[in-house]
């Protein structure tokens, strides 16, 4: 707690605005969906990870990491070849597989079904797995939502606080995250210098807290009635904030509000006993 008065104001909060990247999400690529057409999800992931293991691309690293998390070993790949700007290919279990971009699929003139289009509309990055030239499935990746974010939003809404999100990402990504978390509202495609203005707009209706971790969040943290920084964030954000979440856990935002309310209630109760009618 860097500012006592801000902690006192926390009891009156009516809305909390979260920055997206690194606050509600992990801030790095992760696998979110696997759709198999003639392979199981596990088979697709193992094949894709085996092919991508030789690549240093962030998408490749995320696919390999997901396979490792699920305990899958990598399968030997023969005749491996990288296709610059398009993907990779090789022979796995006697069949030629490719992991390629949507651009390569368009070049081949292959049409995709509604499930793939829905993933794209959510702003996710989609890669295709081809077996002998035919699409076997797709893997979608995105900046993954932190598991604790859902509980944080649920707790805040349970105590009557509206939950919102600010992000520079496009509206498709913002909409997906907002729907996944059950947010009351979101602001997408917000430029760094516009964040403080968005907080000011919300303040016209509600006593507002801002939660963020980046350099770009500092003006918004300063503008808010209560500025809350993620402890693992930048020094600028931490220095600007009124309160710092040392555990980097968004669930602690609800704990701050509850603690502020209880503290005020306690002191209010004590002050009642100092009223003249109780003095001897």
Keywords for this structure?
single chain, 280 residues, alpha/beta, 6-stranded parallel β-sheet, 41% helix
Characterization of this structure:
With 280 residues, the chain is an alpha/beta fold. It contains twelve helices and twelve strands. It has helices at residues 4-9, 20-24, 41-52, 58-69, 102-108, 114-121, 147-158, 171-181, 195-203, 218-223, 235-240, 252-273; strands spanning 15-19, 25-36, 78-83, 87-92, 95-100, 125-131, 134-145, 162-166, 185-187, 208-212, 226-230, 243-245. Strands 9-8-1-10-11-12 form a six-stranded parallel sheet, with helices on both faces. The protein has a six-stranded antiparallel sheet with strand order 2-7-6-5-4-3. Strand 10 (208-212), helix 10 (218-223) and strand 11 (226-230) form a beta-alpha-beta unit. 42% of the residues are buried. The mean pLDDT is 88.
Summarize, please:
By secondary structure, the chain is α/β, with parallel strands linked by helices.
Beta content comes to 25-35%
Which percent bin holds the helix content? 40-55%
Rough shape? elongated
Unreliable residue runs: none
Give the SSE order as H and E letters.
HEHEHHEEEHHEEHEHEHEHEHEH
Computed Rg: 24 Å
Largest sheet: 6 strands, parallel
Q: What is the number of helices?
A: 12
Structural class category: alpha/beta
Order of strands, widest sheet: 9-8-1-10-11-12
Number of strands: 12
Q: How confident overall, as mean pLDDT?
A: 88
How far is the N terminus from the C terminus? Answer: 37 Å
């Amino acid at each position: 707690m860097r500012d006592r008065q801000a902690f006192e104001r926390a009891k009156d909060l009516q809305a909390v605005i979260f920055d997206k990247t690194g606050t509600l999400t992990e801030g790095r690529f992760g696998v979110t969906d696997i759709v198999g057409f003639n392979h199981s999800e596990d088979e697709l992931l193992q094949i894709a990870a085996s092919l991508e293991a030789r690549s240093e691309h962030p998408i490749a690293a995320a696919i390999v990491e997901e396979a490792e998390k699920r305990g899958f070993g990598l399968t030997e790949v023969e005749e491996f070849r990288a296709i610059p700007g398009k993907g990779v290919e090789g022979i796995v279990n006697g069949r030629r597989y490719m992991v390629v971009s949507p651009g390569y699929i368009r070049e081949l003139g292959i049409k995709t079904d509604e499930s793939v289009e829905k993933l794209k509309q959510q702003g996710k990055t989609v890669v295709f797995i081809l077996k002998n030239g035919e699409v076997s499935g797709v893997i979608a990746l995105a900046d993954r939502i932190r598991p604790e974010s859902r509980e944080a939003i649920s707790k805040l809404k349970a105590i009557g606080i509206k939950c919102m999100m600010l992000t520079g990402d496009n509206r498709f990504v913002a909409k997906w995250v907002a729907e996944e978390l059950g947010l009351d509202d979101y602001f997408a495609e917000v430029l760094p210098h516009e964040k403080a203005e968005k907080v000011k707009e919300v303040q016209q209706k509600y006593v507002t807290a801002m939660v963020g971790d980046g350099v770009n969040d500092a003006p918004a943290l300063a503008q808010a009635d209560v500025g809350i920084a993620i402890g693992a964030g930048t020094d600028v954000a931490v220095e600007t904030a009124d309160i710092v979440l040392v555990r980097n856990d968004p669930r602690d935002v609800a704990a701050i509000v509850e603690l502020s309310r209880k503290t005020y209630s306690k002191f209010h109760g004590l002050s009642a006993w100092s009223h003249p009618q109780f003095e001897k």
